């Protein structure tokens, strides 16, 4: 945990911003995997962690926005529980560690909130939270507080130095995971063997994954969690993986590399283009610049490069405005990063990534941009352009003769089976621009080939 003063200040700030009412934050409960007593590994709610840091099951927190007083609700384990689970920190000690003003039994929560009409609750994304709140409030539908959502997003969007340190500590482990993957990948191995090495390294170092590992020779599948392919020379392996810090701050890094240890000429051409897309996007990563502009600049760079390779044609700006680039770059440039790998997405992606000035597009590809707002000092984001050759998408667009004035389908057909390439880093926005967080992870084709040959 951070020092109690940090959580006290966060709660004080939130109560002041809200002004009135009672905030109810429900911690997560154990979730059965396949029968009640066989539960999934526990992960605390990120908003609960942000405001009190307590990583325990079956506790709840209230914050009185008028008095600023906070109360922790929970029960100490019974002897029967201790026999199976061992001791855990007492509720009294939890309150002290987090600087919470008072603590009470779980049974007191319903009594204390009673029939209050001024409750503030965040959106519910898990059934255990939903059922708990329905029972607690004696309602069938849970209404979330728009004002609370807005205040939490505003507060959590700006990362402190303490938070940046946590993300950097996660990246220390993640950098080693990626190095292990590059050094260990070779012809004839199953993808799952590399995944096991990475996850094992994280576990050995007191960490776990911030999200399920994406490691695949089918890089055109954006979020593949299937690891049963045999890797062969000539394949590209895409590794999108990141560890959590001890306090559950996420990292999120992607590298793509050749199974053989050497890029073929065409693999190098496409890889270098994705690298240039990222470098172009990074030039836009500074305060008061829209992240959508960074995305579109990367898309324009993609069109220019693909035109040189004979896959596209015409004016790059016109091609981007029509969305022609999305056949090859069908996702957004990146997203916020913090206690969640897609930070605060449970509060509403549009609320986190968009505002009155920056509205979400309905154009294919651009519609998947998770973050579009003007950048501010303290924001932490991923920057992850990519180029993919997705056979089903190519077939669909070709059948419709879609944007054929910009896409050379005869040449594109030759790239079916190529896979996909994505490069991703995590950055923090400062007054002067941006900084790449964490240790350097081999990224250029030369660096990747060097580490794979070492």
CATH architecture of the largest domain: Alpha-Beta Complex
Arithmetic mean of pLDDT: 97
Query: What is the rounded distance between the termini?
Result: 39 Å
What is the molecular shape? Answer: globular
Number of strands: 15
The helix content, as a percent range, equals 25-40%
* CATH class label of the largest domain: Alpha Beta
Portion in beta strands: 5-15%
How would a textbook summarize the main sheet? 5 strands, mixed
Rg = 24 Å
When the domains are counted, the total is 2
Order of strands in the sheet with most strands: 6-5-4-1-7
Q: Using the coordinates shown, work out and report the CATH topology of the largest domain.
A: Creatine Amidinohydrolase
Structural class: alpha+beta
Structure annotation, total helices: 16
Identify the CATH homologous superfamily of the largest domain.
Answer: Creatinase/methionine aminopeptidase superfamily
Which residues form runs of ≥5 with pLDDT under 50? none
Short description:
With 454 residues, the protein is an alpha+beta fold. Helices cover 39% and strands 13% of the residues. It contains 16 helices and 15 strands.
Features:
alpha+beta; 16 helices; globular; five-stranded mixed sheet; 39% helix; 2 domains
Furnish the topology, listing elements before pairings.
Blueprint: H1 4-18, E1 22-26, E2 32-35, E3 38-39, H2 46-52, E4 60-64, E5 70-73, H3 79-85, H4 91-98, E6 102-104, H5 107-113, E7 119-121, H6 127-137, H7 146-157, H8 161-184, H9 191-204, E8 214-216, E9 236-241, E10 253-258, H10 265-282, H11 291-308, H12 316-322, H13 349-353, E11 380-383, E12 386-388, H14 391-399, H15 409-413, E13 420-422, E14 425-430, E15 433-436, H16 445-453
Parallel strand pairs: 1-7, 5-6
Antiparallel strand pairs: 1-4, 2-3, 4-5, 8-9, 9-10, 11-14, 12-13, 14-15
């Amino acid at each position: 945990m951070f020092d109690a003063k940090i959580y006290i200040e966060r709660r004080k700030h939130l109560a002041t911003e809200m002004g009135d009412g009672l905030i109810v934050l429900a911690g997560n409960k154990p979730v059965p995997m396949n029968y009640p007593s066989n539960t999934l590994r526990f992960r605390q709610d990120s908003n609960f962690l942000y405001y009190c840091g307590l990583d325990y099951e079956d506790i709840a927190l209230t914050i009185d926005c008028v008095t600023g007083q906070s109360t922790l609700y929970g029960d100490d384990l019974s002897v029967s529980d201790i026999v199976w689970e061992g001791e855990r920190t007492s509720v009294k000690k939890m309150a002290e560690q987090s600087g919470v003003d008072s603590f009470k039994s779980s049974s007191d929560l319903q009594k204390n909130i009673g029939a209050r009409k001024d409750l503030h609750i965040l959106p519910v994304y898990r059934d255990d939270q939903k059922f708990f709140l329905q029972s607690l409030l004696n309602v069938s539908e849970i209404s979330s507080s728009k004002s609370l959502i807005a205040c939490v997003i505003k507060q959590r969007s700006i990362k402190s130095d303490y938070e940046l340190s946590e993300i950097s500590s996660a990246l220390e482990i993640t950098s080693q995971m990626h190095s292990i993957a590059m050094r260990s990948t070779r012809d004839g191995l199953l993808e799952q063997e590399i995944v096991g090495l990475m996850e094992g390294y994280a576990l050995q170092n007191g960490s776990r994954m911030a999200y399920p590992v994406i490691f695949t020779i089918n890089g055109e599948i954006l979020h593949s969690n299937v690891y049963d392919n045999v890797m062969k020379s000539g394949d590209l392996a895409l590794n999108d993986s990141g560890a959590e810090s001890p306090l559950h701050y996420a990292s999120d890094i992607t590298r793509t590399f050749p199974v053989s240890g050497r890029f073929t000429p065409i693999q190098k051409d496409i890889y270098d283009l994705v690298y240039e897309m990222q470098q172009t996007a990074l030039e836009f990563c500074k305060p008061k610049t829209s992240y959508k502009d960074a995305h579109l600049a990367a898309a324009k760079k993609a069109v220019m490069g693909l035109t040189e390779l004979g896959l596209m044609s015409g004016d790059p700006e016109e091609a981007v405005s029509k969305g022609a680039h999305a056949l090859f770059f069908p996702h957004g440039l990146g997203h916020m990063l913090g206690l969640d790998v897609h930070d605060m997405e449970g509060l509403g992606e549009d609320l986190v990534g968009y505002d009155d000035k920056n509205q979400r597009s309905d154009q294919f590809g651009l519609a998947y941009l998770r973050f579009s707002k003007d950048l501010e000092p303290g924001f932490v984001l991923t920057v992850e352009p990519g180029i993919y050759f997705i056979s089903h998408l190519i077939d669909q667009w070709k059948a419709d003769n879609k944007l054929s004035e910009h896409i050379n389908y005869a040449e594109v057909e030759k790239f079916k089976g190529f896979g996909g390439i994505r490069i991703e880093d995590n950055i923090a926005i400062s007054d002067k621009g941006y900084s790449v967080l964490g240790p350097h992870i081999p990224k250029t084709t030369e660096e990747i080939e060097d580490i794979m040959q070492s």
